[in-house]
Fold this protein.
Amino acid sequence: MEPHRSPEKTGKIAVLCLVWILFLPILIGGTAYGDQKAGDPKGDATIINAKGETVGAAAVVQGPHGVTISVVVSNLPPGRHGIHIHAAGKCDPPDFQTAGGHFNPFGKKHGFKNPEGPHAGDLPNLEVGPDGRGKLDAPVGGLTLGKDGLAALFGPAGTAVVVHAAPDDDVTDPAGNSGARIACGVFKLSGAAMLDGKPR
């Protein structure tokens, strides 16, 4: 007889299965932009909510056309959400303030519509459907997956991806009026970006 599972445990298992079903093509085949090739540096992040529950995953890949990011989420509020790369590799719930501000090594203002922007860590809004699922594939201009230099995502402080409660208006400094931080994931070097078990 199959052992009884609580609804809460069953729900967590379903979320994890959904995340990896959505995320597996990113790990195997690269981003939607087709930039990834064998040997390309890459990194990934497990995204958690304010309760510390896994609600998604993200991958960054450096290919011949620069860095691209792919994000998949589930169990988030439907609608458009601001999402950005932040300047510290820490995601302490519930408010994720430890992720710091936006990754902005070149001293720009926030927003793609801002004449003095954008931040290097600015991204298009994440669209989440009525079922709580969402996906984003986007280029991340001017950044590298190295450990050295202003534009390096894996410098001493690390970086994180943060999802906000409200849409990003793409112009208001410093965060586009995108509201509270509701999910966060720390980027870590992985796969081709590892050499003998150590980051390159």
